[in-house]
Write a structure and sequence with these properties.
The structure is a homodimer. Chain A has about 325 residues and is an alpha/beta fold. Chain A has 13 helices and 10 strands. About 5% of the residues of chain A have low confidence. Chains A, B: This is Hydroxymethylglutaryl-CoA lyase. Chains A, B: One of its GO terms (molecular function) is metal ion binding.
C-alpha cells in the first residue's frame, strides 16, 4: 500500500452523467440547485452539463440555460462535456470553465457503432478541435481513453491496445505542441476488474512514467470501489465520480445501466484510509439525498443511508 | 497481487441474513425455493435459517419448518445459525448439517448492549456449548470475531483487540482439546475499510501464521468489494456472502444497516480475476432475481442487472 496517494482529486460528474440518463424531465432549476449544493462541499470541479445533440440526449437540451443559471463559487471549476467542435462552440457561449478535450475509444468497434467512424477518422476529427483550441488559446486539459478495459462489442481490451491509444493521443497533442496534463482511463461500459486496472495502469506507466493518470469508473457490475482501491494502491490520485452514484438507475428498470462510482462512498473510503479528499462528507451526503429527491427514485449510494463514521465517533 | 488465492470458498448466507431482516413475512415455501435454487449454482455451503428467539426475530419463527422442507442436494452443506445452546439444540432437531460454533464480539460494549453480558461472561457461556459439542461428537468448525473492525458504540476496533479476542477463542477451543479450522473476522456493522482489513489480518497472521482466516463483510458504506479485494490480495480464500446482497444485521442499531457483500458480484470479480469460485454465475443471477421477487423490493446486487461478461464474449 506504499503507493497510496496522500490526496485525491474528485471530479464530480453527477449532474452531467446523472441527469442525461434520467427518463423523465428534470427541472433546470433542480439541476442548478444540485450543482450549487455540490459546489459547497469542497469539491473543486463539477461537470455540469453536456453539449450534445438534444435529439439524442433530450435530458441535456437545457444545457445552456443550466450553465447560465449557476451562481458560481470562488475556487470551483464548472465544466461541461462535448463530443465535437460544434458542442465546444456551444459551451464557449456559456459562462462555464471551458477547456479543450481529446478522447478516443480503445475499441474500434465501439467508435464505429457510436460515432460512425473508426479510430483514425476520429483522431483526425479531433485535429479540428485542437486547432481551434490553439487558435483561441484554450487550454487542453482533458484526455481520455474510453472503453479502456472492455467493450460490449469487442470484448476485453488488452493493455497493449490501451498503450497504443495513449500513444495516438500523445502524438496528436504533440502535433500541436501541447503537453498532456493528465490522461484518464475510462471503464465506459463496466468491464474493469482490479487485475485489468493494474495491468492497464502498469503498461501505460512503464512506457510513460511521468504521465499523470486518472480513472473514470462505473459500478455496472459492482466492482467500482475495488477498481478504485487498485487504482489508489497504484498511486492514482484523480477520479471521476458522481454524487449518490448518479448516472444510471439500477432500481428503475433501466436494465444494465449503472452509475458512476459514487462520490461520497469513494470519498468516505479515501478519508477513512487517511487519504485527503478536501470534501465535507456530511455536506456530500446532503447532496446525495437532494439528488435522490430530484430524480424521484432511489440511487445506489450507500453512505447516504448509513451515515459517516465520524458522526458515530463523536 | 502475488498472494491472490487460486480458489475462493463462498459461504452463502442470503437466506438466513436476508430473510431475518425483512419487514414483511416471507412464505416458508419461498425460503425453501431460494435455498434449493442456490444449491444448484455450485455453492457448497448455504446458511438457511437462524434458531433465535422468534420474539426478537419473527422472520425466523419458521426455522424448523424451512429446515425440514429442503430437498437436499448431494455435496451441499445446509447450515444454520444460533447464539446459544438452546438454539443449537433446536437446530439438532432438524436435518441441517450442524456444526459447533464459537463467536465473540471484539467490542465489549456491543456484547453488553446486545447480549447483556461482557466478553468474559460470553466466553464462559460458550463453554457449555463446547462441552455439549464434545459430548455429542459434534465438530466445531466455525469461529468468529464479530465487530472486528468497529462498533457503533465503541468506535474503531484496533488490531490488538482483534488479536486478543482471537487468543481468547483459541484458548477456549484449547480447553476442550479442539483445533480451530478457520477463523472469521466479521465487519458486523460496516466499519471496515481496506487499511483496517489489512491491519487486522496482518496482526492475526503475524501471531498465528498457520491459522486460516475468512471474512464476513457488509456493504453498509459501500466498501465491501474493496475490502474483499484487500482480503484476496492477502490470500483470504473464504468469504461469507449473500445472494443479491440480501441481509443486514438486526442488531446494528441504525436504519442504514446494509446487506452482506453480494455473492454474485463477489463471485464475478473473483472469476474475472482468474480466481475459481466453483459457481455458475448465470444460475446465481437467476437466484438473485428470485430473491428480489420473493422480498418484493429491489436488492442491491449489480451483476443481476448488468449480466455477466461471459455472455457478451460469446
Amino acid at each position: 500500500m506504499s503507493d497510496l496517494p496522500r490526496r485525491v482529486h474528485l471530479h464530480e460528474e453527477g449532474p452531467r452523467e446523472g441527469f442525461q440518463m434520467e427518463a423523465g424531465p428534470i427541472a433546470s432549476a433542480d439541476k442548478v440547485r444540485l450543482i450549487e449544493a455540490l459546489a459547497r462541499t469542497g469539491l473543486r470541479e463539477i461537470q455540469c452539463v453536456s453539449f450534445v445533440n438534444p435529439g439524442r440526449v433530450p435530458g441535456m437540451a437545457d444545457a445552456e440555460l443550466v450553465a447560465q443559471s449557476i451562481r458560481k463559487r470562488q475556487g470551483v471549476r464548472y465544466t461541461g462535456l462535448w463530443l465535437n467542435l460544434r458542442g465546444m462552440q456551444r459551451a464557449l457561449g456559456t459562462p462555464l470553465d471551458i477547456e479543450g478535450t481529446v478522447s478516443i475509444s480503445a475499441s474500434e468497434a465501439f467508435s464505429v457503432r457510436n460515432y460512425g467512424k473508426g479510430t483514425a477518422a476520429l483522431l483526425d476529427a479531433q485535429r479540428t478541435t485542437l486547432a481551434f483550441c490553439v487558435e483561441h488559446a484554450i487550454a487542453v486539459t482533458r484526455a481520455s481513453v474510453t472503453t479502456a478495459f472492455g467493450c460490449n462489442l469487442e470484448g476485453a481490451i488488452c493493455a497493449a491496445t490501451v498503450v497504443e491509444r495513449v500513444s495516438q493521443l500523445l502524438g496528436l497533442m504533440d502535433e500541436f505542441g501541447l503537453p498532456l496534463p493528465i490522461l484518464r482511463l475510462a471503464d465506459t461500459v463496466g468491464w474493469a476488474q482490479p487485475n485489468a486496472i493494474a495491468s492497464a495502469i502498469g503498461a501505460v506507466r512503464e512506457r510513460w512514467p511521468a504521465l499523470r493518470l486518472g480513472l473514470h469508473l462505473h459500478d455496472t457490475r459492482g466492482t467500482a470501489m475495488a477498481n478504485a482501491l487498485m487504482g489508489l494502491q497504484m498511486g492514482i490520485d484523480t477520479f471521476d465520480s458522481a454524487c449518490a452514484g448518479l448516472g444510471g438507475c439500477p432500481f428503475a428498470g433501466h436494465t444494465g445501466a449503472a452509475g458512476n462510482i459514487c462520490t461520497e462512498d469513494l470519498a468516505f473510503m479515501c478519508e477513512e484510509m487517511g487519504i485527503d479528499t478536501g470534501v465535507d462528507l456530511e455536506a456530500l451526503i446532503e447532496c446525495a439525498r437532494l439528488a435522490e429527491q430530484i430524480v424521484g427514485h432511489p440511487l445506489p449510494g450507500k453512505l447516504m443511508r448509513a451515515g459517516t463514521l465520524e458522526r458515530l465517533r463523536h
